[in-house]
C-alpha cells in the first residue's frame, strides 16, 4: 500500500531569488521515505540555467545586504527563528519524512537547532567589530568584510540543521548563500529558504538548488563564489577543498570521524551508558561526531556491557512518525548496505555481537542498534567510519595507553570521557587530538560553542563567534598621521 504524504511534496525543486522555481529538464531525484522505501516526492537536479539564476541573483542581492546595518540583518534572522519555532511540528514531520529519523528526535533536535542558530547569529549580527592598533602617532584599524557569495553543501543526516548552521552565520555577516542539499534529503532546506524570505530576507540571499555531487562541484568552481562550506565525508571534503583552494577560495570542512569515548573506572556507569547510547544510536548512528570507539576500563567493562545491552534492547523501534518510537531506519538503502557490509567484516574479523547485528525484517532501511565487543584496534570496524548504529566497545587498563589508542586515527572530530576525577578529566582532554570534546556528556552542540574537527575531520569551525570570522575577511587600514618620509 502506498502511503501518501502530501506535505512532503515541495512546491518546486529549487528556491531562487525569493521564490520557488521548477525546471523539470534536470534529472529526476526521487525522495524516498526511509521507513518504507516508498517514493514520496520527486525533485529535479539543477541545470546550468538554474545554477546561473542562483549565482546571478545571489551576486546581485549580496551587495545591498552587505551595506545594510547588522541590527537589521539580525532582526530578519531572529524573525525566521520565531517562525521556525511556531512551525516546529510541521518542519519536524518533514525532517522525519526526509531522513527517517523518529519524530521524538526531530521535534527537539532539528528545526529547533536551526532556530537556535538563526537566533544566536541574529543576535551577533549587530556586533561585527574590528580592532584598532596604535603605532606611535599613526594607527591602524580592521574592518570585517563579508566574503560575498558563499556555497553551502550538505550531508543527509541533518538537512535542516546544516542549512541553518551554514546559512545563519553567512547571512549575519552580510554574505549571500547558495545551498545544495544532499540528493538524499532535498526537502528541508527549501522550507528554510521559504521561511527566511517570509521573515523578510531580500530575494536572492538564500537560494537552494538541488543536485548530485556535480552540482556542488559546479558551484565550488564558479568564479563568483568566494567560499565553500561543506558537511560531508572525508573523501568528498578532500575533493571540494582541493577544487576551492585551486582558486584561493576559503573553505569550512565539516567531515567524518571515528571518535573515542573513554570511560574510566570511577565513572558514573549509568551516565557513561547514556553517553554511549546518545553518542552511537541517536539518528540511527548517522552522526559525524559519534563516539563509535568506546574504551571502557577493564575493571568495569562487564558491568558496562550488561547495563548497555539491557538498555539498548528496550529501544522502541518502529514507525518514526509515532512519538513513542526512539529508533528509526537508516536514511538510504546505500547506507544500509554499507553498514551491513561492515557487520559482515566485523564478524569475519572475530568481533562478538553483544546485541543487534541484524537487518530488521520490515520494508525500508532498518538495522538493529548494534554493540560489538572482543575487538582489537586494527579491526576494520574500529578503524573506519561506519556511519550507522554500530558501537565498538574496547577495553583498557592504563591512562597513557588509552590516550595513545584514542589518538591513533586519521580523524580528529570529537572525543568524550567519563570520570569523577576532575584533575584527570582535564589532564586527559588536553591530550586528545579532537576538535570538540565532552567531559561527562556527549554530542551536545549549543550554537554558542565552536564545533568542528581537526586532522582529516575538517578545517574551520561552525557555530560560536568563530563562525563569524570564517564568513568574513579582515580589511586592514593603516592611517598615517605625519608627513610621509621618502629616501629620495
Ligand atoms: P558525502 O561526502 O557523500 O556528500 C556530502 C555532500 O557533498 C552531498 O551534498 C554531496 O552531493 C556533495 N558532493 C559530492 N561530491 C561532490 C563534489 N565533487 N563537489 C561538491 N559537492 C559534492 O557525504 P554524505 O552525504 O554521505 O554524508 C555523510 C558524511 O558526512 C559522513 O562522513 C559524516 O561523518 C559527514 N558529516 C560530517 C558532519 C560534521 O559536522 N563534521 C556532520 C554530518 C555528517 P550528493 O549527496 O547529492 O551526491
UniProtKB/TrEMBL annotation:
Residues 21-477 form the Aldehyde dehydrogenase domain. Its EC number is 1.2.1.8. The keyword NADP does not apply. It comes from the Bacteria. The keyword Oxidoreductase applies. One of its GO terms (biological process) is glycine betaine biosynthetic process from choline. Keywords: Metal-binding, NAD, Oxidation, Oxidoreductase, Potassium. InterPro entries: Ald_DH/histidinol_DH, Ald_DH_C, Ald_DH_CS_CYS, Ald_DH_CS_GLU, Ald_DH_N, Aldehyde_DH_dom, BADH. It is an enzyme of class 1 (oxidoreductase). GO terms for molecular function: betaine-aldehyde dehydrogenase (NAD+) activity; metal ion binding. Gene3D superfamilies: Aldehyde Dehydrogenase, Chain A, domain 1, Aldehyde Dehydrogenase, Chain A, domain 2. PROSITE patterns: ALDEHYDE_DEHYDR_CYS, ALDEHYDE_DEHYDR_GLU. The active site is at residue 254. NCBIfam families: BADH, PRK13252.1. Belongs to the aldehyde dehydrogenase family. This is Betaine-aldehyde dehydrogenase. It comes from Jannaschia helgolandensis.
